[in-house]
Specification:
The structure holds three protein chains of three kinds. Chain A is of the alpha/beta class. Chain A contains 13 helices and eight strands. The model of chain A is unreliable at about 1-5 (pLDDT under 50). Chain B has a seven-stranded mixed beta sheet with strand order 13-14-15-12-11-16-17, sandwiched between helices. Chain B has a six-stranded mixed beta sheet with strand order 8-7-6-9-10-18, with helices on both faces. Chain B has a three-stranded mixed beta sheet with strand order 1-5-4, with no helix packed on it. Classes of the chains: A alpha/beta, B alpha/beta, C alpha/beta. Chain C: It holds the Pfam family Aldedh.
Chain lengths: ~325, ~475, ~290
């Protein structure tokens, strides 16, 4: 434990999902993994940002907007990740998750709540009998600077407490120094520790510095068996951005082309308004494809976004602007 | 996408913003006047409805306009200090910015281009062109053409229908900055924004006769360029007409610049940033419905990535939204005219007949109006018409290559030479290729970028002379 | 019996692709001095010689335009050196060809030598002076560079047999173009002697090709040739010009027109002749990480 491995896990270990022959070789050893990741097509920053800016000019109105708002609500991982979190805070968050707009029972529930491991059991109790997922961050979130043993224990603890989804962080230090095998191993190990729980792998793109790195980290996480790739912890600026999410959507799209397997994307941090959320949904729609417009495949890691979605929903239905006092602050 | 779960509701820009009038008149000597030619009807290509009736010029009107321009040149504009001319151009730039929304909607109505392009490209770039050239007017001594370069005199300018206002700006701004006066003929199918620009010139209090605008068809253009009262001709349009103009000016001593057709190669190497290359290819050929002289109409892709690229390309093209040009979500608008649509159909039919493999975007196509779904031909060979002739529509021809030298040979294997694209991560290869491309503009890892400070123009049969930047001034200076 | 020996007369041939062939037609025409005295027979080129010369110029274009500007400068300067060495010979030829006093011919030859030097110095400055880094509004590095237009058909001045010729040829090749020159019809001999200088001055074969013959016969073939990119009408007879321009239009050639009367070639030139046969290429690339 804690000693960097020099070889990566392989499919034969039964650690990751089965890979098609074309990709199986890529995780044979460190060198093969490096060759593969560095062989991915580069990303041209200007071209990417231009495409993103172009998509951001889509004008979503009327029924299309209402549909987008409801879809976005269904995709929210309602999150609280503060040092000051308490069982009380988590309970009120769960209440919000169950009934986002008390005056409008038809408003859909969110996808999940997302908390620290020690508060998972509170959420479990609050959300019993609902379909709302219980996501826990783990692996020494947000920095990930702990020994492998601590990270795995953290994960097992969250799962034992009832987490159905685990949001892990990758070791950015290892990634940036080129120790891809180590990052891969750790994801595989955490995945094993997750058991039945879904694994979201946080790349912390704000620390990866380049789009090329984001693409490599995305593929690395997918190869290691991530169910979702997630942009950020929310503790580093920049958190989620449209270009980074765009790249990750391309990665899951290409992943399905190559493997037939469906993986999801979760931008987290900094998405606060309906306008933002709709821009993300447009990207989902036009980059990954309409099939990704579903909470199984796309999530928003957010807290204040939900209330803005609710206000905009009312505006759409009531024909006038709503205000913050007309939605609940939890 | 046919299996769409999320249909974007229509988000049309209001056509009221265009302030469309039932009649538009010519602009001569600072006033709007009736023309003695047969009025033309400008049609909205997206609906086939008549937008407005527009006066056109007869030969006597050309005489009047040229005389007005000559008078303005001799008595005022040709002698005015550059600093004063500059201020007029700055004013015009500002007024275009102020009326940009009106101009954008009108442009989309008249031309058929998507509002997002007229709003985000055509109109802002037109304003930028005036702004850039305004600054030149009193700095010509620093342009490298001698200490006191003189204007040429009266210019006759003929522009196409693909970027109506922007092309007017490209012609008018440098001409005025250098101290010339002019007579401009907008295209027959898209005269409206040039005539609103005439209103702007009035608002800017540009002296009468400095700019005269004569709508009409090719005959008016021919009369204008052959008129004995003009000193300089600037033409943007087809190579065929450009050659006729060059012939007709033989022996007259009139100065000439031509910006003509193209059949640009967009070269994609196997190490290219593929997703951005796909964007660049799409932007290269489907921007403005492919009605772009520098469109990347020939995709040259390295064989080893051809299949992967084509697959990504088809998917991406299938997400392009074709339809109402005024809808803010429209990516591909209407073909500018019935005649152009027929030309595109004829050329694509030749692609079928010559054995190329046609793929058409499954996007819905409106029943009314002139529309053509984005089309990609693969298995195209150099000998096919769709690889040699300018289609001027949303039609891409895909060819392959194996080595860099073969790419250069194929790219240059055309009488045209306006633009080229290259996509590769390798810096040294970019410069190697850029050096060898016989084209006036080379876009590396990007495509279809324009800027008033960046000279634009062709090699070989794509014309001569440059527009934009320091190099562009030469066309309007007696040097 | 005189003690003067009979001089060995030079045979004047064409200069194509670095070689000195006779006209493929086998024709020649007598060249006389201004007083009508026979000087020599000049080869009378045919349209097929035009074709060969254009092919030679095209073949030479890629290497010559691809040579470094420094290298082209060295080559042009070498021409001046070689010309200087044969100064007296040229003075005699110009005197005979133009019918001017030796003193004036000397001035013309000196000016021709100096012109090569002037243009030799321009080869590696043109791009600095005419190129630009364009300050576009966006995340791009955008630059423009001048590039040679290709094969230039040059109708050399009819009067000024050497200085005029050098004044039109040097700027064409300085920037990397190659050319096919129709020498002055009635005063072609200095042009062929200049070709001998070029052939011994490191100018690669085909960069300059010199044809002698009837301008009215040859010029239309040059003007209409599809593989010629530009045309310099410096020595075009007035009555031919409009027709030549019309022909040039068939492939959108760049045409440098000429004043009706031949200019004073002794005047210090500006860079307009360099500019006339240059294209501007603009290159864009995004700037990002």
């Amino acid at each position: 434990m804690g000693v960097p491995s020099t070889t990566v896990s392989t499919v034969a270990d039964g650690a990751g999902p089965a890979l098609p022959a074309s990709l199986a070789d890529t995780i044979r050893d460190d060198a093969a993994l490096r060759r593969f990741l560095h062989g991915l097509p580069g990303v041209d920053q200007v071209g990417l940002e231009q495409r993103v800016a172009g998509l951001a000019t889509r004008s979503i109105k009327k029924a299309a907007k209402l549909w987008a708002i409801d879809t976005a609500i269904r995709m929210v991982d309602l999150t609280t990740l503060e040092g000051a979190d308490t069982p009380g805070k988590v309970r009120s968050l769960c209440a919000k998750a169950r009934r986002p707009d008390p005056e409008r029972p038809e408003v859909p529930q969110v996808a999940a709540v997302c908390v620290y491991p020690d508060l998972v059991e509170v959420a479990v109790a609050e959300l019993a009998g609902t379909n709302i997922g219980i996501a826990s961050v783990a692996t020494a979130f947000p920095s990930g600077r702990a020994s492998r043993g601590v990270k795995l224990a953290d994960t097992r603890y969250a799962v034992a407490a009832g987490a159905t989804e685990v949001d892990m962080v990758i070791d950015r230090g290892a990634f940036l120094s080129g120790r891809y095998g180590e990052v891969f191993d750790e994801i595989v190990a955490v995945r094993q520790a997750c058991g039945e729980a879904h694994l979201k792998v946080i790349l912390e793109t704000g620390e990866l510095a380049t789009y090329d790195n984001v693409r490599r980290a995305s593929w690395l996480a997918l190869l290691a068996g991530a169910d979702f790739i997630k942009t950020s912890t929310g503790k580093v600026s920049p958190a989620a951005t449209l270009p980074v999410t765009h790249l990750m959507l391309q990665a899951v799209r290409d992943w399905r082309e190559q493997t037939g397997q469906v993986r999801g994307v979760k931008p987290a941090g900094g998405i606060r308004t309906t306008k933002d959320a709709i821009r993300y949904l447009v990207a989902v729609h036009e980059v990954a494809g309409p099939a990704w417009l579903h909470p199984d495949r796309f999530r928003f890691g957010a807290s204040s976004l939900l209330n803005d979605l609710l206000m905009q929903r009312r505006t759409q239905l009531e024909g006038h602007y709503s205000g913050p006092d007309y939605v609940t602050v939890d | 996408m046919t299996d769409n779960v999320w249909e974007y509701a229509p988000a049309p820009e209001s056509r009221e913003i265009a302030n469309l009038k039932p009649n538009y008149r010519m602009f001569v000597g600072g006033e709007f006047v009736d023309g003695t030619g047969e009025p033309l009807k400008s049609v909205n290509p997206a609906t086939e409805e008549v937008l407005a009736e527009v006066a056109t010029a007869a030969p006597s009107d050309v005489d009047r306009a040229v005389a007005a321009a000559r008078k303005a040149y001799d008595e005022l504009w040709g002698r005015m200090p550059g600093a004063e001319r500059a201020k007029y151009l700055f004013r015009i730039a500002r007024l275009i910015q102020e009326r940009s929304r009106e101009l954008a909607v009108l442009e989309s109505l008249d031309n058929g281009k998507p509002i997002k392009e007229s709003r985000d490209v055509d109109i802002p770039t037109a304003a930028a062109h005036f702004f850039h050239h305004a600054g030149w007017a009193d700095k010509l001594a620093y342009a490298g053409y001698g200490p006191e370069p003189r204007p040429v005199g009266v210019a006759g300018q003929v522009i196409p229908w693909n970027f109506p206002l922007l092309m007017a700006a490209w012609k008018i701004a440098p001409a005025l900055a250098c101290g010339n006066t002019l007579v401009l003929k907008p295209a027959e199918t898209t005269p409206l924004t040039a005539l609103v620009l005439a209103e702007i010139l009035q608002q800017a209090e540009l002296p009468p006769g400095v700019v005269n605008i004569l709508p009409g068809a090719g005959d008016v253009g021919a009369q204008l360029v052959q008129h004995s009262g003009i000193d300089k001709v600037a033409f943007t349009g087809s190579t065929e007409v450009g050659k006729e103009i060059q012939r007709s000016l033989a022996g007259t001593g009139k100065r000439l610049t031509l910006e003509l057709g193209g059949k640009a190669a967009n070269v994609v190497f196997d190490d290219a940033p593929l997703d951005q290359a796909v964007e660049g290819i799409v932007n290269g050929i489907f921007f403005n419905q492919g009605h772009v002289c520098c469109a990347g109409s020939r995709l040259l892709v390295q064989e080893s990535v051809a299949d992967e690229l084509l697959e990504k390309l088809r998917y991406r093209v299938s997400t392009l939204r074709l339809g109402d040009p005024l809808d803010k979500n429209t990516d591909v608008g209407a073909i500018n005219s019935k005649a152009q649509l027929e030309k595109i159909r004829e050329l694509t039919a030749s692609g079928d007949a010559e054995g190329a493999e046609r793929w058409t975007s499954p996007c819905p196509v409106p029943e009314k109006g002139f529309f053509f779904a984005p089309t990609v031909f693969s298995n195209v060979h150099q000998a096919m018409r769709i690889a040699r002739e300018e289609i001027f529509g949303p039609v891409l021809s895909v060819l392959t290559f194996r080595t860099p030298t073969e790419a250069v040979t194929k790219a240059n294997n055309t009488p045209y030479g306006l633009s080229a694209g290259v996509w590769t991560e390798k810096g040294s290869r970019i410069f190697w290729l850029a050096e060898r491309m016989r084209a006036g503009v080379v876009w590396a890892n990007t495509f279809n970028r324009f800027d008033p400070s960046a000279p634009f123009g062709g090699y070989q049969e794509s014309g001569f002379g440059r527009e934009g930047g320091r190099a562009g001034l030469e066309a309007y200076l007696d040097v | 019996m005189s003690d003067t020996r009979l001089a060995v007369a030079k045979t004047y041939k064409l200069f194509v692709g670095g070689a000195f062939p006779r006209s493929e037609s086998g024709r020649s025409y007598p060249v006389t001095d201004r007083k009508g005295r026979f000087l020599a027979n000049a080869a009378q080129a045919s349209r097929k010689d035009v074709r060969e010369a254009v092919a030679a110029a095209r073949k030479a274009f890629a290497p010559w335009s691809g040579a470094t500007a420094h290298n082209r400068g060295q080559v042009l300067y070498r021409v001046a050196e070689m010309l200087e060495a044969r100064r007296e010979e040229f003075v005699a030829e110009v005197t005979a060809a133009e019918g001017i006093p030796a003193k004036r011919a000397q001035v013309a030859v000196d000016a021709a030598i100096d012109r090569w030097v002037w243009y030799a110095g321009w080869t590696d400055k043109v791009a600095t002076v005419l190129g630009a880094a364009n300050p576009v509004s966006g995340p791009y590095f955008c630059f423009s560079v001048p590039e040679p237009t290709g094969v230039v058909g040059v109708l050399a001045p009819q009067s000024s047999a050497l200085l005029g010729l050098v004044s039109v040829v040097a700027p064409v090749i300085a920037t990397g173009n190659t050319c096919v020159v129709l020498a002055s019809e009635e005063r072609p001999l200095p042009a062929i002697t200049l070709a001998e200088v070029l052939a011994t001055s490191d100018v690669p074969g085909g960069v300059v090709n010199v044809l002698t013959g009837r301008t009215a016969e040859l010029a239309p073939w040059l003007a209409s040739h599809s593989d010629v990119n530009a045309l310099d009408l410096a020595g075009a007879p007035g009555e031919l010009r409009a027709d030549l321009e019309r022909s040039a239009a068939d492939t959108v050639k760049r045409v440098l027109r000429a004043p009706v009367t031949e200019p004073d070639w002794a005047r210090q030139p500006d860079i307009s002749r360099l500019r006339a046969f240059l294209e501007t290429k603009t290159v864009w690339h995004p700037t990002g990480i």
